[in-house]
Input
Amino acid sequence: MRGEREIGRLTLNTKESQFTVHCDALATYTSWCGTRSTEVKLLSVAGPATSIKAIGAALHTGGKSVYFTARDCGDIREYDKYRPDGKWEVYRTHLGCNTYHLVGWSKDEGFLATVSREALRRELVSSRLTTPLLTTADWIDYLIQRLKEARRWTEYKCFGCCCAGVLLDDTALDEIVTAGVRSGELSFT
Output
């Protein structure tokens, strides 16, 4: 039926317990720095109060004994979550009849909860980056293209959302902007 969202299942697994909830958005990222490490970057789930509270706590505390498995979430099958730092923004709301909704996303530097010009613009003008630049559509399109070419832009594996990560610091951004200005592809006018 047109307009209906797909709903998957997400299970929180810990040493002591297991909680399964409905999932309508999920983003994951796998890195291969010596060993395989897969992280949850964004999730939107609904279920009983106890399950939602347990998931919120797990996101804030993380640890190697905490992992999630996904079922019927598009291409995402199963993944581990290793977030000992607990850097998450989490919101819960009561939907009624002992059902709660939780949406949470990583507070990692460079995390874009949506892939858009505006999301990248907000990241580029954040207080952590000091490179002078214009945030016109031409500049943003140029920067996205160069970030992808430099492998500093990663689109995550997603279900019900579209997220990305930008690996960027002042030095890298300075180099990209300088090259664009020198080549004439970027202009301050």
About this structure: The chain has a mean pLDDT of 84.
